[in-house]
Design a protein that fits this description.
Residues 1-13 have a biased composition (Basic and acidic residues). This protein is an alpha+beta fold. It has 2 helices and 7 strands; from the N terminus they run βαββαββββ. The chain has helices at 36-42, 56-66, and strands spanning 30-34, 46-49, 53-55, 77-80, 83-84, 90-92, 96-100.
Length: 106
């Protein structure tokens, strides 16, 4: 998978803070990137989730909670730090999660 350097990445401003988190030092942040149709469905290329650890499936559910109309996230391939992953794999603070929706062509 290619590198993501140079993308215009913007946050939606809709960040979630885990219970007990007050933005103090040590709070983890996961970057979540959207490509192709998902970028169109969410209206952004990136969101940030203040979370120390989650499974890929939990990240996917978080995205759906923010963007219920982003239905292609259910079928999207997921990558963490540019490596394709499974639903049960763990994502940590400072990781980058990318969702790449299925593509079709002729």
């Amino acid at each position: 998978m290619g590198r993501w350097d140079g993308l215009d990445r913007r946050s939606t401003g809709e960040e979630s803070i885990s219970p007990g988190r007050t933005g103090k030092r040590g709070a983890g942040r996961m970057k979540i990137l959207f490509f192709a149709g998902l970028k169109d469905q969410t209206g952004t290329e990136e969101v940030v989730w203040e979370k120390d650890e989650a499974t890929v499936g939990e990240v996917r559910e978080y995205v759906l909670s923010l963007f219920p109309h982003a239905y292609t996230v259910k079928q999207a391939m997921a990558a963490v730090n540019e490596e394709f992953v499974q639903e049960t794999d763990t994502v940590h603070a400072d990781d980058t999660v990318a969702f790449l929706p299925p593509v079709s062509g002729g």
